[in-house]
Amino acid sequence: MTGHGLSDEEIKRQYALAGAFFDLPLEEKTRYLANTAAGDFRGYKAKATGELAGKDNDERYNIPKFTPEHERPHPQLIQDHLEEIRKFSLVSALRVYMR
């Protein structure tokens, strides 16, 4: 993606923050589980195990919108950088939408 107005450093920083989140202990990440059974995908989703492991093998942390009605607790790592993450997310989404 080009023309988004973000520097290489800003992009690398977001990858570093994501890596730091996924390096957190599983016990910490699971404190922020998304309630996917209820259709709520905000928060952490662990990799599937057992029969689903081959089909659902991604791990993710979802912050879908930065609006009051979607607020929820986040790990300290996310809280410490939430404004930076928000800016990156909104700029990226806007540029993709505008294409």
Describe how the helices and strands are arranged.
Layout: H1 8-22, H2 26-29, E1 43-45, E2 60-62, H3 76-80, H4 82-98
- Portion of residues within helices: 40-55%
Strand-and-helix sequence, N→C?
HHEEHH
In the predicted model, the low-confidence regions spanning at least 5 consecutive residues are 95-99
The profile of the biggest β sheet is: 2 strands, antiparallel
Number of helices: 4
Structure description:
By secondary structure, the protein is mostly helical. It has one domain. The protein has four helices and two strands; from the N terminus they run ααββαα. It has helices at about 10-20, 25-30, 75-80, 80-99; strands at about 45, 60. A two-stranded antiparallel ribbon has the order 1-2. It is globular and about 40 Å long.
